[in-house]
Amino acid sequence: MPSRPDTSNYRALFLHATPLMDVRAPLEFARGSFPEARNAPLMNDEERHRVGLCYQQQGQEQAIRLGHQLVCGDLKTARLAAWTRFTRQHPQGYLYCFRGGLRSHLVQQWLRESGVDYPLVTGGYKAMRRYLIDTLEALTAQADFVLLSGRTGTGKTRVLTRLPNPVDLEHLANHRGSSFGRQITPQPSQIDFENRLAVALLQATHRHGLTVYLEDESRLVGRCALPEPLRARMAHAPLLVLERPLAERVRIIREDYIEQMLAGYCTRDGAAGWHSFREYLLGALERIQRRLGGERYRRLRHEMEEALSAHQQHGDLSGHERWIARLLRDYYDPMYDYQLQQKSGRILLRGDPDTIIAGTSTIAQPF
Question: What's the predicted TM-score (pTM) here?
Fold first, then answer.
């Protein structure tokens, strides 16, 4: 394969979802990375810590020498095999470290000595992160946002994905945005969320222009905070209000929060999946106990426990529909209706999914 040059074209990397091999230590990777990045470290956390102390106390030359002593022999062979495997799986990818310095150049050198010529990202993680911060700021200011709103259970995410140019904030945050919104897998770090958001906006505006559809979210999606400039733009954006009958909303919630979540927990935990699922539901209800009030909380918990028992013992899901309907009518709907009343002047359109989707055909120009 012909040699490819190193790159500083960060825009192209993110637009084309280019595979990236992050050779930083696992702790660095966990603090912040990119959607297409995979961690294949030159040094683990302990090795990096030791080299860092050596650098502070004895200087760069001794730190480099220590690094070579720590990563040698069978350990070097194993890590080189991991890097080589990545290059074969992703021949159009790139590697990077924190600043595009010693670590990435050393990995590049060792790969070259083993017969693999693989390019790196100049400037490394720091430069790419800076690019995404600037991109997020610029696109937040330039884009024309349209928000999809609606009561809990109207299936907003399902409809959002059918709109002309969506960015799914809940998908990026790996959370459905309510007290019941936790997913089986953990949420990204705040930095990862911001990076994902910047990449998603970059790709969306590149493909379809500056009119971008978002779900109407609060400041927090789980524990991921929307950037304040984006929240400020969303606070004045026009609204599409999705409407469905209560029975349909109950069905959607049962599918998403009962059937899919139970299947996910059982896949992850095996025989313990039922216990995990039960703890998820009861824990979510407990988190809103104070807002529900004591009597309403006790009644809902009792109904939820009865529903869980009938579901587990007999496969009967009807009990879930009862507590879901009560929770919607008594808690979520009044809260949403009050919030929507404050935004009534921004409503462009309201209706069922087909009405909303058809109506977006007339939304083509900035507001």
Answer: 0.93
